[in-house]
Amino acid sequence: MKDIILSMIGSWVANSFVRKYGKVSSIKLDTEQKNLTVTAELLGELSPLTIVLKYKSYRRNGQMLVEITYVESSREWIKLVANDYLNTNKAPIEVPGGLAAAAFRFLGI
Question: In angstroms, rounded to a whole number, what is the distance separating the alpha carbons of residues 47 and 75?
């Protein structure tokens, strides 16, 4: 149930960022498998783009961090570029305080 709720919130947030480029048609979060699947219908694309992000999340010094560990994509070039980048740039993403607090309680991270 938590994955469904978070996926719905994620779709709303993602669409606020990509509206200029198209729309996110679905987001599916699987907190057990630690992956996030995003499908988007982007302007100029003939078919939807799907990206699967494998991640790990952890706390350090009270801060919630998320690190993307692998990327799959329906576009091979995106997969290759993203994973090449991840191999040289393993910097975790810092989750903002309010979101982190909610995630700690909701997800048990």
Answer: 10
